[in-house]
């Protein structure tokens, strides 16, 4: 089977809900990262054979095959097709895996994987609420209700279940959240994000500015300030401070074949080593990255000691904590530049966003292998392993 290579990976800086990116249409936000890929790499963008766009809330301004609309709004030729996919929080990680599979199969040579989510302009759950308001029913069909009687699948409840199952405390979660903010602060101040962040021009009352710094980082976070945040459920452990932040953002990864490297004079930054996707319990839901990682190691013949850095999406603090515990990983190697608790989780954009951060961190530390995984709605998880070249 042919190899697939990552040539470039970019993201926008995260925008808080109602923050600096709130005035940017999601189509234009997505176009910014596609333009950046075209600008940063010296090849004819018409050679891109497909754009696979991850997006979770595909309604309103993100409706109508948002990926195609983003291509049309970008600098890319309108001859490039696009498809929009939804694997919940793993949507753009799956877009990356589909892109890699197209290249590895030999049917495509250059594919752009990307993701978009404006959680300010197209709020989480808005499409479901529209159908409920109109009396058109919900996702819970009679047969699904029969299989899972009385259960409304909830990531929040899954997070609380994860806390109890793995024996974590509120202090454990807040400590991990603090570390996320501290690492994100250090990365920002050291310029670690400079090569991955695409500046986006935004309008402000004081005039136009370039948004190029993640808005969600609490530079003054302390255990005291985080522990003062109220619980989301009485008797629980999850708070807004130890969960991911609602975020606006876009990201993209350019994936090519060895033939494309030679024909277009491109320089690879990483090789795709393993692509895994699994599914399990849809109720506890958020635990699947643990078992998906087991499968990835089984299929690749690798072990945790082979991996230099890991990006495990911080949807809720118990997810990376449970993953660390299950696989016996080194805590100093996880989310080394902070994660979604500090940087935000723009749903459909998070998969390729995490890859941009993982790739740059791996290069900065001269590591060889990196692993990325995230929990997803319905009890699913993707794992992607890369080798820096």
Q: Would you mind describing this structure in some detail?
A:
- The protein is an alpha/beta fold.
- The chain has a domain at 273-388: Thiolase/Chalcone synthase (Peroxisomal Thiolase, Chain A, domain 1), CATH 3.40.47.10.
- Helix content is 35%, strand content 21%.
- Strands 1, 2, 3, 4, 5, 6, 9, 10, 11, 12 and 13 form an eleven-stranded mixed sheet that branches. A two-stranded antiparallel ribbon has the order 7-8.
- Strand 3, helix 2 and strand 4 (82-85) form a beta-alpha-beta unit.
- Helix 1 packs across helix 2 (66-73), helix 3 (91-104) packs across helix 13 (350-364) and helix 10 runs parallel beside helix 11 (318-327).
- It starts with a strand and ends with a strand.
- The mean pLDDT is 96.
Summarize the biggest pleated sheet. Answer: 11 strands, mixed
Classified by CATH, the class of the domain at 273-388 is: Alpha Beta
Topology as H/E string?
A: EEHEHEHEHHHHEEEHEHEHEHHHEE
Strand content: 15-25%
CATH topology heading of the domain at 273-388? Peroxisomal Thiolase, Chain A, domain 1
- Which architecture name of the domain at 273-388 does CATH use? 3-Layer(aba) Sandwich
Overall number of strands? 13
- What share of the residues lie within helices? 25-40%
Mean pLDDT: 96
Spatial separation of the terminal alpha carbons: 18 Å
Q: In one word, what is the shape?
A: globular
**Alpha-beta content class:** alpha/beta
Which superfamily, in CATH terms, is the homologous superfamily of the domain at 273-388?
Answer: Thiolase/Chalcone synthase
Q: What's the helix count?
A: 13
């Amino acid at each position: 089977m042919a190899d697939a290579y990552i040539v470039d990976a970019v993201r926008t800086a995260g925008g808080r809900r109602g923050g600096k990116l709130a005035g940017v249409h999601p189509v234009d936000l997505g176009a910014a990262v596609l333009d950046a890929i075209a600008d940063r790499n010296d090849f004819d963008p018409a050679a891109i054979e497909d754009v696979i766009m991850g997006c979770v809330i595909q309604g309103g301004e993100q409706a109508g095959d948002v990926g195609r609309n983003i291509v049309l709004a970008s600098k890319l030729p309108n001859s490039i097709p696009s498809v929009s996919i939804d694997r919940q929080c793993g949507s753009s990680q799956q877009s990356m895996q589909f892109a890699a599979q197209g290249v590895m199969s030999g049917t495509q040579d250059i594919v752009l994987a990307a993701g978009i989510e404006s959680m300010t302009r197209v709020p989480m759950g808005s499409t479901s609420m529209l159908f409920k308001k109109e009396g058109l029913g919900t996702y819970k069909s009679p047969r699904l209700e029969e299989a899972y009687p009385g259960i409304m699948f909830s990531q929040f409840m899954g997070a609380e279940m994860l806390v109890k199952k793995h024996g974590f405390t509120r202090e454990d979660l807040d400590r991990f959240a603090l570390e996320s903010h501290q690492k994100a602060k250090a990365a920002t101040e050291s310029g670690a994000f400079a090569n991955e962040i695409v500046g986006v021009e935004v309008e402000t009352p004081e005039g136009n500015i370039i948004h190029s710094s993640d808005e969600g980082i609490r530079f003054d976070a302390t255990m005291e300030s985080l522990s003062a945040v109220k619980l989301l459920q009485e008797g629980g452990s999850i708070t807004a401070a130890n969960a991911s932040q609602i975020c606006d953002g876009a990201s993209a990864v350019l994936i090519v074949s060895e033939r494309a490297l030679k024909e277009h004079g491109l320089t690879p930054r990483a090789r795709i080593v393993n692509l895994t996707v699994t599914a399990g319990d849809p109720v506890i839901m958020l635990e699947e990255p643990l078992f998906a990682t087991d499968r990835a190691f089984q299929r690749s013949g690798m072990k945790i000691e082979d991996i230099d850095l890991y990006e495990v999406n911080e949807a809720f603090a118990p997810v990376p904590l449970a993953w660390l515990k299950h696989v016996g990983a080194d805590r100093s190697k996880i989310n080394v530049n902070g994660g979604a608790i500090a940087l935000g989780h723009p749903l459909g954009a998070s998969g390729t966003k995490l890859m941009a951060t993982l790739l740059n961190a791996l290069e900065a530390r001269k590591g060889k292998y990196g692993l990325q995984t995230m929990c997803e709605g319905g009890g699913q998880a993707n794992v992607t392993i890369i080798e820096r070249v």
